[in-house]
Automatic annotation (TrEMBL):
Belongs to the LysR transcriptional regulatory family. InterPro entries: LysR_HTH_N, LysR_subst-bd, WH-like_DNA-bd_sf, WH_DNA-bd_sf. GO terms for molecular function: DNA binding; DNA-binding transcription factor activity. This is LysR family transcriptional regulator, nitrogen assimilation regulatory protein. It holds the Pfam family HTH_1. Gene3D superfamilies: 3.40.190.290, Winged helix-like DNA-binding domain superfamily/Winged helix DNA-binding domain. It comes from Massilia yuzhufengensis.
Length: 309
């Protein structure tokens, strides 16, 4: 198996046809077809099939595509690590951010990267935390901002901030508490809109509830922050989240947030990297910059509800 075969295969999948991939790669289409056939013969599986919509991946092809992407990225990182200077890092760095963090961190980090490291291309991926964990394990991400429930065995983790989860609902909602704060037991008795069990704040809420001898009531599972926001505005329930991802709605009065006490629900936000895949100089520089930007945001009060961990 050769690296060029991996590049050819990824290009065919990305462009959806042999002819378009051949043009982009500057390779004759018969040669591209031959390399694909040799790759399939070596793997003993069909990776692609023709359809009315172009070349589509088989189930085996979808699996191989993920591995091929990770391998090609690690090769590019290795090449970049050898040639780049420690005083002037350059190259591409991929950083994963959960939906609930990107609103606070993404734009300040992009601005700081452009100013400090103009030769680094920062690629931001916004996903649910479960997906980011898998991408970081496979090497498709250099770094990811995750939470304190990640598997410590796979990652090296640097604490960034702590965030309190708040009880948030539409202003004037039937779910709104009467007092200035509410106990966790009261919050759990409401209809809560939360991600599925393997994602985001849900494992944290369940862990704290279990530790307090409490059980969750009615749950509406929504993994998309945009859809969760729409459900809140439609008054389908309340949620337990940090204020940052819904700050615009809270500031304009469309939503209201209440502190949760007895016990409070707090999450640790961490910057994670693989223990098995070395960071390039550029990735290490971005990791340091993430910590600096986070400290600045907290010092200026620009990351509401967060304090340095």
């Amino acid at each position: 198996m050769e690296l060029r075969q991996l590049r050819y295969f990824v290009a065919i999948v990305d462009h959806g046809s042999l002819s378009r991939a051949a043009l982009v790669l500057h390779v004759a289409q018969p040669a591209l077809t031959q390399q694909l056939r040799q790759l399939e013969e070596e793997l003993g599986a069909q990776l692609l099939h023709r359809s009315a919509h172009g070349m589509l991946s088989t189930d085996a092809g979808k699996i191989f595509y993920e591995h091929a992407q990770a391998i090609l990225k690690q090769v590019a990182d290795a090449r970049s690590a050898v040639v780049q200077s420690t005083t002037r890092p350059s190259g591409s760095v991929s950083l994963g951010l959960p939906h609930s963090i990107s609103g606070a961190l993404a734009l300040p980090l992009l601005t700081a990267t452009r100013t400090r490291y103009p030769e680094i291309t920062l690629q931001l991926t916004e996903e649910i935390s479960g997906s980011l964990t898998e991408q970081l394990k496979s090497g498709r991400l250099n770094l990811a901002v995750l939470f304190d429930d990640v598997s410590a065995g796979h990652f090296s983790a640097t604490p960034l901030v702590e965030e309190n989860l708040m009880f948030i609902c539409r202003s004037g909602s039937s779910f709104a508490p009467a007092a200035a704060s509410l106990r966790l037991q009261e919050a759990l008795a409401s209809t809560l809109i939360l991600p599925a069990r393997q994602h985001g704040v849900r494992p944290l809420v369940e862990r704290v509830a279990q530790g307090a001898g409490l059980a969750l009531g009615t749950i509406l599972e929504i993994n998309s922050l945009a859809i969760l926001r729409s459900a809140l505005l439609a008054d389908l329930g309340a949620t337990l989240l940090p204020v940052a991802p819904l700050l615009a709605d809270i500031e304009r009065g469309a939503m209201t947030a209440w502190p949760v006490v007895d016990p409070a629900v707090t999450r640790q936000v961490t910057l994670c990297a693989s223990r098995n895949i070395p960071l390039t100089n550029a990735a290490a520089a971005i990791g340091k910059l993430v910590r600096e930007v986070t400290e600045d945001l907290c010092a200026r009060g620009a990351w509401p509800g967060a304090r340095l961990g």
